[in-house]
Amino acid sequence: MKQHAYDRLQDVAGPVSRETFDKLVAFETVFRKWAQRINLVAPSTLQDAWERHILDSAQVVRLGGGAMRWLDIGSGGGFPGLIIATMIAERAGASIDLVESNRKKAGFLQAVVGELGLPARIHAKRIEDVHSVIRAPEVLSARALAPLPLLLELSAPWLEAGTTALFHKGRDYRQEIEDSAHQWGFDLVEHPSLTDTQGVILEIRNLRRI
Ligand SMILES: C[S@@+](CC[C@H](N)C(=O)[O-])C[C@H]1O[C@@H](n2cnc3c(N)ncnc32)[C@H](O)[C@@H]1O
């Protein structure tokens, strides 16, 4: 079973060391413990958390290439931010900032960072309040945070300055792109999700206000 899970992780995320895999397994254990006490994800998705949340998150790391400075906004129970943190931990000097305004969830994120020794800083604040605090990440991620027009508004201070976005999106993503078009110009690559047949990861660069 464990070998199968390791192989599947590498199918989705590319080459991953055994140590990183073991850390992701440790993350899942801590996550499950906390998820019994506080609402970290929809309870109906808990049973399949490895595929639905951990692997779903892991796939963005490959799309980010060798980026060293990451930012994840609206991190909730750590997806994809803490999974990215776990996977970039072997890159010397790499780090990620996570922004989550819910205090209970931010408390969970901070506890996991301490317990697993992850290269992540937790900001228990609103995204709107950290625009000038978190400077020039190479890649910004967000999953299940907001429809694309609002997501672009929230991330514009970084994206307009050259950060690349990697946004998990579900089946309605084409409508969301259309809804953004009157207000925003951007370069777009649609990457089919490897864990959700109807999902995509939108890679957005060169954001500009129209
Ligand atoms: C639906 S959850 C998704 C969490 C996680 N990204 C995932 O995919 O499981 C959205 C999260 O964003 C946080 N959030 C929403 N608006 C925010 C804001 N303006 N600033 C910071 N966090 C915010 C919420 O507290 C919530 O935890």
UniProtKB/TrEMBL annotation:
Binding site for S-adenosyl-L-methionine: G74, F79, I127, E128, R143
Residue stretches in coiled coil: none
The protein's Enzyme Commission number: 2.1.1.170
One protein family per Pfam: GidB
UniProt keyword annotations, A-Z: Cytoplasm, Methyltransferase, rRNA processing, S-adenosyl-L-methionine, Transferase
UniProt GO MF annotations: rRNA (guanine-N7-)-methyltransferase activity
First-listed, main subcellular location of the protein, grouped into a coarse class: cytoplasm
Reactions performed catalytically: guanosine(527) in 16S rRNA + S-adenosyl-L-methionine = N(7)-methylguanosine(527) in 16S rRNA + S-adenosyl-L-homocysteine
Keyword Transmembrane helix: no
Localization per Swiss-Prot or TrEMBL: Cytoplasm
GO cellular component entries: cytosol
Protein family: Belongs to the methyltransferase superfamily. RNA methyltransferase RsmG family.
Function: Specifically methylates the N7 position of guanine in position 527 of 16S rRNA.
NCBIfam families cross-referenced by the UniProt entry: rsmG_gidB (TIGR00138)
Protein's recorded name: Ribosomal RNA small subunit methyltransferase G
Organism: Aminobacter aganoensis
Lineage of the organism: Bacteria, Pseudomonadati, Pseudomonadota, Alphaproteobacteria, Hyphomicrobiales
